[in-house]
Design goal:
Helices cover 44% and strands 16% of the residues. The chain is built from 7 helices and 7 strands; from the N terminus they run βαβαβαβαβαβααβ. The longest helix has 29 residues, at 97-125.
Length: 234
């Protein structure tokens, strides 16, 4: 099963763990991220086949990614839109307009850009799997997470619509909805790291499971919680 797999946000967290899982599975793995040094270190650690330095919020970078994949491999079998980030976690009234725009662009627009970029290739192949990474914030409510939640809810619903468009072409689109894990995400947002029981490897295993299902089977979406999490509905 030597598929060509592209994973964004692959230099750390869920992305790097997912790259490891696909590589161990015997796939050809392309790691993509913004920071060249950290990306190359991740590629070496994973044993990845190619590192793409790209900013997922820039459509031009997606166009270059398509060109590189086409020229190097001639196809893409699995796209994992994992890149994302909190940008700012605070009450809506405290956001700057620039922070709002950056949050939506990184967490929602980038997923749409990625699907837009590779849809044509997968349609032509009449085969492929796209897995978009959302967040439990898409389904649950916490104060100060509203803007991020809006973007991640968009990812979830975008994935459903995109699947219906791609289904006639034998292309699957799924959404994985993870709970928080100790990935450095919270620290990057300036709110301190958590000690979640859920591990990046658990999300990676879920993504791989979704991709490894027979082509006749599709996971619409799947939510993965850590066993230590308790949710009290609004």
């Amino acid at each position: 099963m030597n598929r060509i797999v592209l994973i964004t946000g692959a230099s750390d967290g869920y992305g790097k763990a997912t790259a490891k899982a696909f590589k161990k599975n015997g796939d050809t793995v392309i790691l993509a991220a913004r920071g060249k040094e950290k990306l190359e270190a991740a590629r070496a650690e994973v044993g990845g086949d190619l590192a793409l330095v790209m900013d997922v919020t820039l459509p031009a970078d997606w166009e270059r990614a398509v060109q590189t994949v086409q020229e190097t491999y001639g196809r893409l079998d699995v796209l994992v839109n994992n890149a994302g980030g909190g940008i700012a976690i605070k009450e809506v009234s405290e956001f700057s307009i620039e922070e709002i725009d950056a949050t939506i662009k990184l967490n929602l627009n980038s997923v749409i850009y990625g699907c837009h970029a590779f849809a044509g290739m997968m349609k032509e192949q009449k085969n492929g799997t796209i897995i978009n990474i959302s967040s439990v914030c898409a389904r649950q409510c916490w104060p100060t997470w509203s803007v991020y939640a809006a973007a991640k809810a968009g990812v979830l619903n975008f994935s459903k619509g995109m699947y219906l468009e791609m289904q006639p072409h034998n292309v699957r689109v799924s959404c994985v909805v993870p709970s928080s894990a100790s990935t450095g995400f919270q620290r990057a947002c300036g709110i301190g790291e958590t000690t979640d029981l859920l591990l990046p490897e658990d999300i990676a295993d879920t993504v791989l499971y979704v991709a490894n299902l027979p082509q006749r089977a599709v996971v619409e979406d799947v939510t993965v919680w850590g066993i230590d999490k308790q949710i009290n509905p609004l």
